Amino acid sequence: GAWLEQLIAESTGKNGVAIIPIDKEPVLSPAFRGSVLSPAFRRPPTDELPPEGGTQNYSDDRVFVFLSLKGNGGFEMAMEAIAAAGHPVIGIELQDVESLGQEFFRWEFATAVVGSVMNLNPFNQPDVESAKIEARKITDEYEQTGLLPGESPFLTGDGMALYTSEQYALLLNGAADVSSIRGLLNAHLSQLSPGDYFALLAYIEMNETNERLLTSIRTRVLKRQGNATCLGFGPRFLHSTGQAYKGGANNGVFLQITADDPIDLPVPGQKYTFGVVKAAQARGDFQVLLDRGRRALRVHIEGDVTKGLRKLIELIN
Question: What's the longest Cα–Cα distance across the chain?
C-alpha cells in the first residue's frame, strides 16, 4: 500500500490534477454513514442498506481495489457490498506470494499509461523541491541567527497553538463558534465539500501509538463527512503524497500536526539540531501549501504528544 501510495501520488499529482491514493483507511460498510464492516466483512443486511437518496459512508469519487492471495477468503463480502452500493470495484487475486512481482509491473505500467491520458509526465516531481527550498531558507536563517524565524499563532488553548495564513484565518473566523480550538477545528473540517479529501500531515514520531490515535481522527472525519482521508508522517510523505498535495488539484483540506521534541540531538558539523531540521521541513511544507492556496491548518501540540493527540480526538468528536 505504501509503495502504491508513492507511485500513484508522486506520478499523477501535478499540473493541477491528481489521483489521490488512499492507504490504510479503515474499512466501513458502504451503508449508512458511520457503520462499520465487521472483521469478517459481513454483507450488510437489507435493513442496513441506505434508502434511495440516503447518505452512504463513501463519497462517489472512489475506485476500490482489493488485492488478495488465492485461498485467503474474506474480501468477497466487502467487494460485493461496496459494488452493490454503486462504487467501482477491482479485484486482483494472486496465485501465490511470488506473483506479487507482476503487480509491481502492472501498476508501474498503468501509471505510465494514465500519465499519458492525463497529459502529464509521470516521471518527474516538480513540486517536491518547493518544500525543500523553504526548509533550507529556515535552516540557513538558524545557522546565522541561532533562532527559528518568529511565528505567531492566531489561537491558543487546550495545550495547543493554531497557525494558518491570515487569509484562511479570516475565512474560518467567518464561520460560527470559532472562539475556541474546538470551534476552529470544526470550521476547518466543515470546509470539506463533495469531491474533497482530508489529509493528516503528522510531523511526530512514526510509532504504533501515534498511528492508532491519528487513525482514530481520520476515522471520525470519514464517518462524519464521508470524504476520503489520508495519513502521512513527515518528512516521509513529502516524497509521495506531498507532491500531489502541492501540485495536484486544489481539493484537499489539510491538518498538519507538529509537537515539541522531548529529546533533541545536534547535527554534526552544523549549528542546528535534528529537531530544527524537522521543524524547518514542517514549516516549509506548510508554507508551500498556503502559498498554493490550500485549505491548511497547523496544530502545534505543547508538551506530551500522546496526551495532545487524545485531546485533539476529543475536540474533533
Answer: 67
Amino acid in the structure at residue 147: L
Residues contacting residue 59 through CB under 8 Å, at least 6 positions apart: 194, 195, 226, 227, 228
Distance CA 149, CA 287 (A): 13
Q: Are strands 155-157 and 228-233 parallel, antiparallel or unpaired?
A: unpaired
At 128, list the grid cell.
517536491
33-91 residue pLDDT tens: 555 443 333 344 444 444 444 457 888 899 999 888 988 877 788 888 888 888 999 99
Bridge partner list, 94: 69
Q: Which amino acid is at 314?
A: E
Q: What is the C-alpha to C-alpha distance for residues 23 and 65, in angstroms, rounded to an integer?
A: 11
Q: Output the pTM of the full model.
A: 0.91
Q: Are strands 252-259 and 295-301 parallel, antiparallel or unpaired?
A: parallel
β-strand 89-94 against 197-202: which pairing, if any? unpaired
Calculate the CA dihedral of residues 150, 153, 157, 162 and round it to 10 degrees: -120
Coil, helix or strand for 176?
Answer: coil
Contact by Cβ (8 Å): 67, 103:
yes
Place of cell 469531491: 195
Question: How high is the pLDDT of residue 76?
Answer: 80
